[in-house]
């Protein structure tokens, strides 16, 4: 009886050891501030669906430049009452809260930011299915993810974003 117990314990330890080690990075859930229609830059409101470059936006204050901002909206194109302007540190994984996760239709990084938006909640570094599980954008962003020009690997990217990471350009 004791031998069976020891063998069962050894088998359990072997199974645990075979599991992949967890990522040392934990995605941080950050909530932003709601924005009104007047607060969304005009360059984002009227850009083509697949635009990734645009006119210079007004310079921001020094404290906002320390972090990178992204406009994220549930409804396209940048429908104000469904948007938040979220700030994070450069190279920080931001997991979207339950209001936005899997519900994003417009994305607009601030000028000077380059962002990768992931269809998974943890900004996967190596498990990205050959680039088919993320979408890249820079200012003025992508006003309508529900268009063919914003498809990723032939799949519509609307309502797929769950996390993102931004860098200074």
What does this structure look like?
With 169 residues, the protein is of the alpha+beta class. Helix content is 15%, strand content 23%. The chain is built from three helices and nine strands; from the N terminus they run αββααβββββββ. It has helices at 2-18, 42-45, 62-65, and strands at 28-29, 33-34, 68-73, 83-88, 94-95, 106-109, 113-118, 134-138, 163-168. The strands form two sheets. Strands 1-5-9-7-8 form a five-stranded mixed β-sheet, with no helix packed on it. A four-stranded antiparallel β-sheet has the order 2-4-3-6, with no helix packed on it. The termini are far apart. Residues 4-31 and 45-64 have low confidence and may be disordered.
Give the overall average pLDDT.
74
Oligomer: single chain
Biggest beta-sheet profile: 5 strands, mixed
Give the CA-CA distance, first to last residue: 64 Å
Task: Give the helix proportion (percent range).
Answer: 10-25%
Give me the strand/helix succession: HEEHHEEEEEEE
Unreliable stretches covering 5 or more consecutive residues: 4-31, 45-64
Strand content: 15-25%
Rg value: 20 Å
Largest sheet strand order: 1-5-9-7-8
């Amino acid at each position: 009886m004791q031998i069976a117990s020891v063998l069962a314990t050894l088998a359990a330890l072997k199974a645990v050891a075979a599991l992949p080690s967890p990522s040392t990075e934990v995605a941080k859930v950050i909530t932003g501030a709601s924005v009104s229609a007047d607060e969304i830059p005009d360059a984002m409101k009227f850009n083509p669906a697949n635009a990734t470059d645009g006119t210079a936006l007004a310079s921001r204050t020094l404290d906002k430049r320390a972090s990178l901002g992204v406009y994220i909206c549930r409804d396209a194109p940048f429908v104000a009452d469904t948007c938040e302007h979220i700030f994070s540190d450069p190279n920080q994984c931001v997991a979207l809260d339950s209001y936005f996760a899997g519900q994003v239709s417009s994305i607009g990084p601030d000028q000077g930011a380059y962002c990768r938006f992931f269809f998974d909640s943890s900004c996967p570094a190596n498990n990205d299915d050959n680039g088919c599980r993320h979408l890249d954008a820079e200012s003025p962003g992508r006003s309508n993810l529900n268009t063919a020009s914003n498809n990723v690997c032939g799949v519509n990217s609307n309502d797929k974003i769950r996390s993102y990471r931004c860098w200074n350009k």
